[in-house]
Amino acid sequence: MLSKLRHFTDGGGSDLASLRSRVDVRPALGAVGAPNAPFVAVSGGTLGVCFIATVDGRDRFLKSYASVQGKPNLEKEVRILTHLYGEMLSIRRIEVPEDEEQTRVWLFMDALRPLDAPLGPRDTQGLVEAYRAQLASLPADALQTTDTLGTLIHEASRGISNLVSAGQLSSAIKHELSSRLVYLTQKWQSFSSCVAHGDLGPHNIMAADCRPVVIDWEDAFCGVDGYDYLYWLTFFENRRHYNKDILGRTPLGVEAEVALLAMILLLKSELSLRANTLAGNQISVEQRIGEVLALA
Asked: Where does the record place the Aminoglycoside phosphotransferase domain (predicted)?
């Protein structure tokens, strides 16, 4: 989420389509010996540029970045995906000249397919625990980011004021959220740390050989155990799971879980505000945050 928040804070949102249109996948295909392979552009998240190409009779996925600021995040994603699924998905990092001064990096891997059915809370938690265990052996310098849960808490504190100014939060919810963020500020460094995906949602869980695979690691950071499961719960389609049974499943404790759920929804709403997409939401910001506060 942090990469998107920063992108729209810097005023770059309006030129994404133009930036994507300038990215040419053919040099990357030439680098893998398939310069004439057929390809089609596909969705690659907010800041990515992605294609599916048929190479040697197999569908392959290629991903790069819309702006050069996204290069470090793609490099990070390549390292993490290689650590988790390198051989299984035939993952490669490709670097090709783009002009006289710059090169462009590509992620090249087997194309995946959607899951037959969305995962529920228990299976999602199991998936998170499995990749958390694998990432415990990720080299210390692989993340190359100073972002922590503290970074998100700071961004959320700024977001409260922006959402109040935009008429999206009442004074009562503002007070409740501020109290929750104070609690997190005091507690977060005592939580068990781990590599967190940072943007885990149903759209980032795909399938390979009937096995769930987690993609889009651009926003991975030094997070806390339980964060990714809670982030997954904040997606609109997962509201159907909301009841008190979804809490208490992480080492954080229910109070911290509710505080993090509210913080994540606050940040998502702030992102929508920056990207001018709040008008498309089906229910209000205050309703969404109120739903998770009611779980306490």
From this structure: 42-236
- The predicted-structure confidence for 215-234, as pLDDT tens digits, reads as follows 999 999 999 999 999 999 99
**3-class state of residue 210 by DSSP:** coil
Q: Where are the domains of the chain?
A: 12-111, 121-293
The fourth-level CATH superfamily of domain 121-293 is Aminoglycoside phosphotransferase (APH), C-terminal lobe (3.90.1200.10)
Burial of 128 (0-12, 13-18, 19+ CB in 10 A): buried
Per-residue pLDDT reduced to its tens digit, 153-184:
999 999 999 999 999 999 999 999 999 999 99
- Residue 248 near residue 257 (C-beta atoms within 8 A): yes
Q: What token pair was written down for 209?
A: 């050989």
Burial of 250 (0-12, 13-18, 19+ CB in 10 A): buried
CATH superfamily, domain at 12-111: Phosphorylase Kinase; domain 1 (3.30.200.20)
Distance CA 258, CA 296 (A): 6
Q: Which two tokens stand for residue 162?
A: 């922006």
